[in-house]
Amino acid sequence: MKKYLYTLKYMVLGAFVSLTSCVSDDLADVGDLEDITGPTPFYSVTDVTTSEFDCNDVELAANYDFNFLAGSNLAVNGTNYEWSIEPSEGVSLINKDLPILELLIDAELAEVVALEEDIAAIEFKLPCETDQDVIDVMEAELAALEESLLDAEASLSDETLANVAALETQIQELEAGTLNDREIIFSFPEPGTYTVGLTVTDNLGKSASTEQIITVNQAVPTIPVPEIGEPGFEVGTLFDGSGDGRDSWRVPSNADWSPTTGGTTVIQINAPTNESDLAALPEGVQAAKLPASGDRVIYQEIEVSQGVTYVLTYFSAFSLDTDFGEVTVSILNPNTSTYAESKLEENILATRTDTSVGRTENVFQKHAITFEAGENESVIIYGTVAGDEVRLDAFDIIVKQ
User: Fold this and answer.
1) How far apart are CA 251 and CA 254, in angstroms?
2) How far apart are alpha carbons 122 and 140 in whole angstroms?
């Protein structure tokens, strides 16, 4: 029996060697089979368009750039790539290494670039600002940043300057992109539809083609993220470095907005003194405190963009001094002018109520409210409590993608 097993083993081994010799490139013209498989081309596209708008959403510049990377099936590697583009008028080709070299320069000049970006951000906002107090603060900050930029540029080491010079030389000597590059950046002259084709030829001269319709969309301004004043109820976080953590959250009129029709509505501030309580705070060293009496509220009107959907997040914690408590945070339309009106359905864009049921004493929990701005250019963040003392902290808002 063992003899027959050995015989079968060598028969299989012999068959394997025989099959291998048919496809071996080491034995040219000896049993080679003709390769009749052609390439299967494909390519990937990445939109790397950049644009610049002023604070009034007027387009200043737009570069409609798309990165194209060619490929073929794994069994047959393409050795020649040829791109085509229709219409081709005004389309320019950019070497794929150019943005990489530019990023390497930015990395060498990281501190300088960061200061330049901060300066550009202020210069962007300044022309559209109307509050003179804010303008004064921005201009002072701009002057300080410009001085810091001069210092940062003067302190660049010889090594850094040499590295930057070397990278700039590489950019100057960089070959222009061609239609035969496997990876290429097409810079389109304007929005529209373009037909981009790719022909791949393998090392045996076999070729195949593919094409796609590429849609270049008009550049649009980036939707600004609304600013929430004193979002973590911290001291000194207003635009001019002032504020006690509550100034942004005051109602226009105590009489109109008081849930109890009298007394102050201004929130209290909770500032823990021991390390364990401080560690429990979601942000900073302070939080808003609204007593169980329900007479204190949070109120802040913020600017939004029409037609945009937002997500507001915040944290709450209950003291659990009573059997039941609740906290309600609502997004109101800007025409809401009293507490009574805040209860009307037509004034509520979105609302959320959380209770003390199942909660742990003084442990913060994160909540989220999604709302649509609709035709509003501003909305009101409004919050009330009932039944138990509640702390609120770390308000934040993002544009929903």
Assistant:
1) 6
2) 11
Angle formed at CA 280 by CA 310 and CA 358, multiple of 5 degrees:
75
What is the distance in angstroms between the CA of the first residue and the CA of the last residue of the chain? 71
Kindly list the domain boundaries of the chain, sorted by start residue.
1-33, 38-96+177-222, 109-174, 247-399
Q: Amino acid identity of 120?
A: A
Q: What is the pLDDT of residues 88-97, one digit of tens each?
A: 999 999 999 9
Structure tokens at 235: 């001291």
d(CA 162, CA 151): 19
Q: What is 247-399's CATH topology?
A: Jelly Rolls (2.60.120)
Pick from 32-36, 97-101, 239-243, 278-282: least confident: 32-36
Residue type, 301: E
Domain 38-96+177-222 indexed as CATH 2.60.40.10: yes
Confidence of residue 74 (pLDDT cuts 50, 70, 90): low
Q: Please say whether the beta carbons of 31 and 17 come within 8 A.
A: no
Closest CA to 48 of 243, 167, 179, 186: 186
Sign of CA dihedral 351, 356, 357, 359: positive
Mean pLDDT across the chain: 90
Whether 55 shows a pLDDT value over 90: the answer reads no
